[in-house]
Design goal:
The protein has twelve helices and seven strands. By secondary structure, it is of the alpha/beta class. It has two domains: about 180 residues, Rossmann fold (3-Layer(aba) Sandwich); about 80 residues, Orthogonal Bundle (DNA polymerase, domain 1). A seven-stranded mixed β-sheet has the order 3-2-1-4-5-7-6, sandwiched between helices. Helix 2 links the parallel strand 1 and strand 2.
């Protein structure tokens, strides 16, 4: 199954500071690129667990006695690692967002390039799809979604237009949705606006922000002292959560202080923000918006 090159491959795996006999987790397996790189640096006693909620990813499973692939959302990381008797790990890598493969399969409905049924579920087991979001969400919910997840000033108008259109007939395909959105797609920015709208729907369908928060909160307990977190985000909402969490263990507000006014934080950042160079972006457009943050458990 065709998956593109993983983004920031060397930098993100370097960030884990791999110990040959350590235990590592790749929470976004996809095509397995990051996992293969981690395995190449592990000794025979090392272990790697990978998560991917997409059934398609199972076809890329790596045959290696040190490797275990778990077909679940990474928001359940602790529960499933415990099932394998793992309470602590040496490093966790995450490459969030949609895999190139998911964009390239028309019927999954992630891409603005194809006419497909409105879907956008990262796991085919998910009960909520883009079809329900577009046809059943109240106008206020739609407005909030386009504001928060796409940063669109026209969110109220877009929400109103969708509600008006679906009263005439359900909006079932990406072409039908595009027709409804036509008044908001200015010629020179059409692709960008459409991509933002799709991003907002996808985040809602897959509860990406809730899942990311739940996952991050579990990393504190899972990582050993000195263990590493290496996380790649693709939009500002995710990156902001990762950055704040690394900085003070919270998603909002300031870090907690003890009786003496000392700040107690779970992590220390290991490097500044890392972004792909021009050469990588030239080879892989998806890398354009990638931001890598690396932290160490205190």
């Amino acid at each position: 199954m065709e998956y593109h090159n993983p983004v920031l491959l060397k930098e993100s795996v370097d960030g884990l500071n791999i110990q040959p006999d350590g235990v590592y987790v790749d929470v976004t397996f996809g095509g397995g690129g990051h996992s293969r790189e981690i395995l190449s640096r592990l000794g025979e006693k090392g272990k790697l667990f990978a998560f991917d909620q997409d059934e398609d990813a199972l076809e890329n499973k790596i045959e290696d006695p040190r490797f275990t692939l778990i077909n679940e959302n990474f928001r359940f990381i602790k529960r499933f690692l415990r099932f394998y008797g793992i309470k602590e790990v040496d490093g966790i890598l995450g490459d969030f967002g949609v895999s190139s493969h998911q964009f390239d399969i028309a019927e999954r409905g992630f891409s603005t390039r194809f006419d497909a049924k409105l879907d956008m579920r990262m796991s085919q087991k998910g009960s909520l799809s883009a079809l329900e979001v577009i046809n059943e969400y109240e106008e206020g919910q739609l407005k909030k979604m386009f504001y928060e997840y796409a940063d669109l000033r026209t969110a109220p108008k877009i929400a109103a237009e969708i509600v008006k259109a679906r009263e005439v007939a359900p909006i079932k395909t990406s072409e039908q949705l595009k027709e409804v959105l036509r008044p908001f797609l200015f010629k020179e920015k059409e692709h960008k606006i459409l991509a933002q709208i799709y991003q907002a729907i996808r985040i809602e369908v897959n509860q990406e922000i809730e899942a990311l928060k739940e996952f991050l909160l579990q990393t504190q307990d899972l990582l050993k002292k000195g263990g590493r977190l290496s996380l790649i985000s693709y939009h500002s909402l995710e990156d902001r959560l990762v950055k704040r969490y690394i900085r003070n263990g919270l998603f909002e507000g300031d870090a907690e202080k003890d009786f003496y006014g000392n700040i107690s934080v779970p992590f220390k950042k290991v490097s500044g923000l890392i972004v792909p160079g021009a050469e990588e972006i030239g080879k892989n457009k998806r890398a354009r918006s990638a931001k890598l943050r690396i932290a160490k458990k205190l």
